[in-house]
Design brief:
heterodimer; A: about 525 residues; alpha+beta; Beta Polymerase, domain 2; Cytochrome-c3 Hydrogenase, chain B; 2 domains; 4-stranded mixed β-sheet; 17 helices; B: about 180 residues; alpha/beta; Rossmann fold; 5-stranded parallel β-sheet; two-stranded antiparallel ribbon; 6 helices; about 40% helix; globular; NiFe-Hase_large (chain A); ComplexI_49kDa-like (chain A); quinone binding (chain A); NAD (chain A); oxidoreductase (chain A)
Amino acid sequence: MRTLINNIIGIEANLDEKQYPSDIHAHLVDREAFRDVAKAMKANGARLVAQWATDETLFARGFGIYACYGKGREYLIIKAYMPIEDPTFPSLTKKFASAYRFERQINSLMGIVPVGHPDLRPWIKHEDWQENAYPLRKSFEPCEKITRVKGNYPWITVGGEGVYEIPVGPVHAGIIEPGHFRFSAVGEDIINLEARLGYTHKGIEKRFESLSWEEGAKLAGRVSGDTTVAHSLTYCRAVEAISGCHPPERALWLRALMLERERLTNHMGDIGAIANDAGFAFMLYQMSRLKEMLLRTNQQLFGHRFIMDRIIPGGVALDITQEGKNEIIAEMDWLSKEFERLVTIHDRNSSLNERLINAGILLPDTAKELGVVGVVARASGQGMDCRVTNPFSPYDQIIPKVTVFEEGDVYARVWVRIEEIRDSIRIIREILNNLPDSKIVSRFECPSPNKDGFAVVEGWRGEIVYWIQSGLSGEISRCMVRDPSSINWLALEQAIVGNIVPDFPLCNKSFNQSYSGCDL
Amino acid sequence: MIKILHQVFRTGIVTEPLPPMVEAEMVEIGGELEEIIKKRFHRSLTIRAIDAGSCNGCELEIHALNNPIYNCERFGLHFTASPRFADMLLVTGPVSINMEIALRRTYEATPPPKLVVAIGDCGYNGGIFGESYASIGGIKSTIPVNAYIKGCPPTPTIILKGILELITLEKPYAAQSFHPR
């Protein structure tokens, strides 16, 4: 990919030296070349990882537009600057489907226009916000109030005889996050699904800009409550990349331990909840019992059921004792036995599997086209896992097993989770048996001004990306958060077409996307 | 099928083998709760949970109330799909600008008398998200609140305890900004 970029842009001189870590290359291109690079990247089989904009007027650089591409283990950031008086850039949506919502979001929150974008309805920002509210701009005060105006959101409509719409949400029947889904259906068959999110938008990216680097880790831990470990870890790794801080070996291993425990609890909950949505409540209660036991051990050993705020810039906030280690090892033995019994029951229950097989199929080609990540990608033939491609210690020694299925249905997504639970149990055992002795936190110095940090971590949902820029006096100037859900929501809309309305909860649960992580 | 039955009998009632500390607490809370729910709410206190913009952390703990270990239904606590059937709203927040109207409508759709309990630090005052262009702050900013159960997130035991303390008050509906111990 690097040779390719050199061929397109011509010279290494365009390399942006302020991007950290140094193996992530950032290239500055002319605004006009922004789409040409995308074209070449697409031809080269790369995926669009994220796209975001910055307000760099305080650096006298105008606005910045960034696109991050990924292929295999390589990540490449392409950026271009725009003058304040002409904030436009060529849209990438026709090259990369995942740019569709990134660009709508950039347009809504930063007021930068993607020229050539086919659909510029507001995203995250709702239609009743005043027109000129662009909260991510530096000229917008964080506490400025939005004035409500009368607005209209033109939904995508489907015509034809017998077509009707079912609006669902934002307040749902279950205990879940808010979002609006609009189905167009004929009889029970879904012809089209349009999701409208943004209901949990609470200004997280703007909020980062008024926090200290340490407080930022806490906020990152609350981007999505179920992914608190992975989000704060990604944030910390991006910050540490800028400041050149190397956490001690033991801290890295403990971080991996927390990350795997988070994967275990969430996957267990999901397997139970998916089965429940197919009418098999037994599995929900059994799995939620195992999950509760894991949470209690977390509380006892880490002082928090979801291990919030235990990952800090420079390392981790608390160590584990020998007794704690023994306790987890004993717990893994118990858990593994209990889990395998349930897997056998799940596997032999033909009426359950009848519902799961062939429901909500996301074809491998569609998955690749959309650039989906994580569990959803692995269930649709895309063998990607940042723990393997971009490992930090101990993942370079304890190599995770990447389970890939081609079917792309609910059943495949369940089995990816089952295999990952098995593998996580193995990883946790190996971490505890080989845990190195050292300090648990290194001295963390705040980053120097005008530097960019980037990090990716495989959370339980998939690849999480943070890109952080330090400001003129070394404060957080911009923090871009990309939860796996930001991309995978698009895939749900594709997978549901042709299914029946009553199967939506089942399909939705098998994706289990974060609303808060997407809305920010 | 035989495996399912075997697993059911092997698992037994998991409410039994809790750690003694938690178990003692649960029996005490649960027993009292059951009495009051029988008396005041004719055997069932129906709850509608609303996410007004939370990070999903509090939702996980509200979910956990329904797991077989806390099994809140044994005390007559029941979660409903519609605000029309609800005696109590459990609201998590901060209230986001995009949920403000939906939250107010859901509140209005709930028939009086109704109790509102704000869950979590964010439900109290916006928590780490504070007040900004997008976050209006605590639940009180939008609808009247009877009680706050703080924590980030509060554990299921704390939520159960908080609900109990509110409904055992002499006049729970008159309570404003009640903070359980």
